[in-house]
Amino acid sequence: MNPDAPLPLENFIQAVQSQLDKAQSAMAVKARNLNLPMTFAIKDINIDLRAHVEFAQGEIRIRPAGANEPQASVFHIVFTAITRPMIEENAVAFAEDPEDQSIDDLDEDLTAEERRKLEWVGVRTVKQLRSMDREGGSREAGRITNLPVARLRKALQQASRPMVEQVMPVARPDDTAASIKNILRVRGRNLIPETGTPKVHIGGRPVSLLKSSATELLLAPSDDQWAGELAIETDTGLAGAMQFDLRPLQSSAMGSAGTANGNGNASQTNGSRDLMAEFSAQNRGGTIPAPQEPVS
After folding, report:
1. What is the pTM of this model?
2. Which residues have a Cβ under 8 Å from the Cβ of 125 and sit 6 or more positions away?
């Protein structure tokens, strides 16, 4: 690393904080090992940092000044003690839900500079952007960040498209309705609309839907729907699709299960017992729900 290269201001602050945390941990170990009734700790640290300031790619960067560079700026930084409740009260929750999409997932529609501007107004996830648009805040955010509202909504629409990641046959439990011969589990993202149910087709034909959530669908396909294009439409203009082929597993689906990945290939898993247990746990206390009528 070039020692003269500028670094982001937060990197300097985090480096100092990290070293102070290490010193605090060392003092705690020392107090325990020596059984000290009292010891000393650092309460505040004042730092006057002389540095040259640059602004690049939407962030402040600093380069420490040398002894013979009088034109440098001075940063007066004070580090003080803060407790865990104070941190939790004042810190921003980036994404409590692990399923939340980061705003960085919109890299195909928004530049890094534009995504950083959204972060400046508190939008760090696609869910937050969607909520802001629903509440009519897109225009205000667009005005503050100089981003056209149409671009924000286009990026949001792209992020809202259903994404199919996995198609997996599930062993049919004994108490399943007689009309349900096959069960497929589809995993992905944005698989259901905000209201209603998605339209699901395999090979251009509707397929019955047993259960649905944003990340998982349970389907009851016909015997001739074990291969082809799986298409999911959640709203007008919002659709996703994936080619898959599970026909090599069809004849043994009652005794084994496999997975089809995004390449359309099927790979054998360790049998149906784990899948059966997982499926039963998710539906414990009742039988498999009756399939909904396919939505054309």
Report:
1. 0.55
2. 94, 95, 100, 101, 102, 103
